[in-house]
């Protein structure tokens, strides 16, 4: 399983940003292996983190090459004062089972070593 975390500081969002953001999110949801997403905001700094999860690296790479994503990369300085992207392989995920989360793997699907 893979995750892509997009962390950013905002400037000013406009209608073009919201349209492009929605289109990228829709494209992510249509890629092979898409598992889900979540977003976080730090109330002190206003910094935002969007995390997307895939069952394989192929879907992640498909989103990275999507035309709307490439357009956003070219125009980011209009809306963001800085960003960081973290691509990670999820080795383990566990909890008490009370939170529905994209990283939850059914016991039958989990590898024996997990």
TrEMBL record:
Alphabetical list of InterPro entries matching this protein: Dimeric_a/b-barrel
Gene3D superfamilies: 3.30.70.100
Name of the featured protein: Heme-degrading monooxygenase HmoA
Source organism per UniProt: Chitinimonas taiwanensis DSM 18899
